[in-house]
């Protein structure tokens, strides 16, 4: 219970909130059983006025400036507010001076009419609309007897001031903290959230009553206007808290039933410590460690995109060395297959393709640069810098070259680099301030300006210089709005390079601006860079990023394990941006090596890594696996026989119905592979050449087995080992032997068996 | 341009208009997709041999019926045709197959005899058939033993053909997807160079050619596959967007052991015409390109003053004067005054004639201080500066004086590494540090949506004010630099002269009773305003030549380009029609037609410049030549 220590100076409110009645020093305490906690609730000075906090805060709390209402791109009903009162100067102008917002011009559309009435404040549109005295599409947002209403009336009555910049800065929220940080509750439970703002100068202020709460998944937990969370169903969701100019999220865990005797689970590294800690908090038990066959297949496919051959499966499963998993990991990390696989992965991410770079030689140079980087384990920050700031004639430079002889637009180039290396999607801020995130249009174009000088020198088309050199030229590259000085689309002024933080970039903004951009993006002081890549790599090994999608970091999409993300990023940074070491950390963890078989507590868990989740193989890896199992290589145009799909430099040059059906991206934009089952895949499985012609083609595994006089049992075992990396169970072996014997054609029967194996979900998934 | 036809030559001036009517230009133009109408050779295999050897080669091509001679353009190599056979359709590398009008692919077996004292390098040869003389193929003479690839399969790492280093191997990438493997042993820390010489794809109809790729492997095996190789290196010199002409890679082996080198075609294609010569040598040995460049047997390269690799030596001014009207044509200047004579050899072949005066060229060599900062050195006009952009961001500065109205040409050469790796950019700054101009040529593309920019090896400028100026040299990007980024930059007075002169043909098969055409393009450099007389010497009996005109198809509007004359010459084309009389006797072997250009102005005629020697034959209309 709460007791007022100085009852004459404070009033008791529900759930322990205290409201000041007069100025002065107040000691307050809270009593739970025999425990007493106290605090100094001094209000040391009168609060200066801040439009952003006092008016913007109300508009934010009431949801007036959210993205569905006046905070959307064009605003609503001709009235535009910045999302979350991010730009209070603009908001003040649109309220006080009125006018209809235009996306492509700073000028208002049509005549201006103020939304406030200084003589009759209660008649102001700003008040009559949300109180429904006049029709309002957003419904009633404000009651006339509320404190917020009174605040707005008093503000208008006082002449609708903006306030001084000094006062604004004094009350500007620097940081929001939510308590408890990671609440966990049972179904039906309740939890009050406490939101504390840190202002300039370190002053802390309880703003719980001044913010807007919104649950990402109200089916799991809903949240009231005042911040009271009610758990509805088992699961996890985030609550987004928006205050004027700032936002924060808190992840809510709703457990099925508490576990009183949570067992001790062994850990191998910090990944286990952080993941298991959260599982314990959520009362979820991790699955058992995977058995050797499950681990073997998983780690081979994840690290090398290659199935272990039958003899290696036998050898590994028979081995009893206590470190055999770690030894295998080292073998795989240093294998040429690892190099193949991760060259393919980064060729995907970095978009290598004939239809992208325009010339196969350019694609090849670019691909060779990637391969060389992987082979030499080049620090990832160095790769990033080389790509972002590339000049001259070489792979990373030519990736800026477009088919047709032109360069991509500066905004496209910038957007891609930020997405790839910082995991953020700024695109929405191109035409307007980002409706959901704190990215302004000015920031977008400031970043874009780093690419405004990108120029190609050389002229393939006329043969004067049969090559292209990429460089930064202050004169720019294009005319008619393409390239050259970057012009802000709204105010039509030239934009100078500036980082997202607002600091200017480049030397005088003229020389080699991209080098400074590359340094800024990869700076150790910038956690986003390391977080983006560790999250991407994590997503590869678990089928889900800690932030998912892996390149969509944003407030409304918080990390499921922020501590883990930070720890991985720090470890990666401290380790010299070593990709192999990052992968080593991950695959050596107990979490990675968990079984995919669920237990009662984690059956529905999808986000906490309490077990391995089956993941479909990527198209190229699947096709290579089928070729490997059948022993019949795929033929890609004139490429040498045995060329693997993951080794194609410009995959887009080789038409493949199979690859397209299973999700091969065209790399025209940053790929997002999401393999989903389709009717086309089913039909291809039934009649497609990949599944039919390979079964017993020339040199096939079947042919070799039959020619060697293998028994049916030996054939079944070999095929299981080749396709599934495991021995058949006794039941499987017995039934299949009998089935083969019962068929008229032994060859046909074995073909059918291979077809069934490579068409199975067990084959097509990493599990 | 006015063309003056000297009276004392074979030709007779005929009204161009009349001839244009009689022989419409379009009818004479070869269609790119049309089947060959002249003897066309596609490949020779093997591609080279050791000096002092005799070997049999097979040349494949079209319209080679009755092939009777192997005709080398230089050197004392001899060839004798043994026989001619039709190449079986299967596997003849003709992906389009035989068409109704398409000639049959023929193979000509010939015996080549290479004198023991033959100079190392590349020799051009042609075949002579009843249809005339073919295009040229290249044949390489090597100093050491040359192996042939084994007839046994060696297209996998496990079947690689063993060779001992150093080695030269003649091979062929015959089938799609083929990669030929060669295995060799190497000691620790040895650095080897791998090179491939082959015939690259040409222009239609001679489009068949190998775009080779070289890959170095270590047969490491892997946990997955004991036969697996680890790829160590790949030829990294695709310096253009299309073919690699002389791919090479240099690799330092960290471990003693057995390694593999693979030769294949880019993108994996194969053809019986994809013949190649692989060379494995110590990295200190001269490269194929160096051997060819330095070889005394080399065919002089055509004059091209707008290439970064052309030598700019002490004789530059004399050479340019020898290409102008009224010059003495000696091609010699005074010596470099500081004694640092250039070793560059010039390639033009002026015929001495006329006047001219030698001039001294002051050589200035850039020197870096210990901290990498160079001093500003003074240079006069004419003057030659030599320097190196030896590290990223390095900028070399020179000071010079120029007079108002002085017309200066700036020429830059990259004797070692050139574009696209080293792109020398220079700018001229006035006394206030403003850049007046640079060698970056910027103009609008045809689509008018973006600028085309090129770094130019030659720039002209007329100074508007007398004063002291700065010459600033660096790499275009400022991101690169090393000891190979050497440059030589010549500041000199502009010398009006005849620039590049070229034709659109490399051989002439003149059909009796019909006309053939040569288009000659002449560049007039640095304000050359005189006439250029073209002369054809050595025409076969019964052949006459006439000036002609050609109406070119409209290419659309050309964007305004005020800077053009600073970076490119005035250029004119003229058509020469060659008419073989109906009774012109057929020739059994080619004769060399000599095309010469002679600048002429008020000061008098300049020297005759040999532009090209064109092999020419007269053949019967049916294609069956009469032996004469």
Keywords:
heterodimer; A: 767 residues; alpha+beta; Immunoglobulin-like; four-stranded mixed β-sheet; three-stranded antiparallel β-sheet; 29 helices; 21 strands; 37% helix; globular; disordered N terminus; B: 628 residues; mainly beta; Jelly Rolls; 3 domains; five-stranded mixed β-sheet; 5 helices
Could you walk me through the main structural features you see in this protein, from its secondary elements to its overall organization?
The complex is a heterodimer of chains A (767) and B (628). Chain A is an alpha+beta fold and 767 residues long. Chain A is built from 29 helices and 21 strands. A four-stranded mixed sheet of chain A has the order 9-17-16-13. In chain A, helix 6 packs antiparallel against helix 19. Chain A is globular, with a radius of gyration of 31 Å. The two termini of chain B are 40 Å apart. Chains A and B meet through helix 10, helix 12, strand 18 and strand 19 of A and strand 16, strand 27 and strand 28 of B.
Topology:
The complex is a heterodimer of chains A (767) and B (628).
Chain A: E1 2-4, E2 10-12, E3 18-20, E4 27-32, E5 35-40, H1 51-61, H2 88-96, E6 100-102, E7 105-109, H3 125-128, H4 147-157, H5 165-171, E8 173-179, E9 184-186, E10 190-192, E11 194-199, E12 204-206, E13 212-215, E14 221-223, E15 228-231, E16 235-243, E17 246-255, H6 270-281, H7 292-304, H8 310-318, H9 324-333, H10 336-349, H11 354-357, H12 360-375, H13 380-388, H14 395-398, H15 410-422, H16 441-448, E18 454-459, E19 465-472, H17 513-521, H18 527-542, H19 562-574, H20 579-588, E20 615-616, H21 619-630, H22 657-661, H23 679-687, H24 689-692, H25 701-707, H26 712-724, H27 730-741, H28 746-758, H29 761-764, E21 765-766
Parallel strand pairs in A: 9-17
Antiparallel strand pairs in A: 1-4, 2-3, 4-5, 6-7, 8-11, 10-15, 11-12, 13-16, 14-15, 16-17, 18-19, 20-21
Chain B: H1 16-22, H2 25-28, E1 40-45, E2 48-50, E3 54-62, E4 69-72, E5 78-86, E6 105-113, E7 121-129, E8 132-133, E9 137-142, E10 147-148, E11 161-162, E12 167-172, E13 179-186, E14 191-198, E15 212-218, E16 230-234, E17 248-252, E18 257-265, E19 275-282, H3 288-294, H4 316-321, E20 362-365, E21 377-378, E22 383-388, E23 395-402, E24 407-413, E25 424-429, E26 435-438, E27 440-444, E28 451-455, E29 458-462, E30 467-475, E31 486-493, E32 497-503, E33 508-511, E34 515-525, E35 531-537, E36 543-548, H5 564-567, E37 570-580, E38 591-601, E39 604-605, E40 609-619
Parallel strand pairs in B: 2-9, 10-12, 11-13, 20-22, 21-23, 33-40
Antiparallel strand pairs in B: 1-3, 3-6, 4-7, 5-6, 7-8, 7-9, 12-19, 13-18, 14-17, 14-19, 15-16, 15-18, 22-31, 23-30, 24-29, 24-31, 25-26, 25-30, 27-28, 32-34, 34-37, 35-38, 36-37, 38-39, 38-40
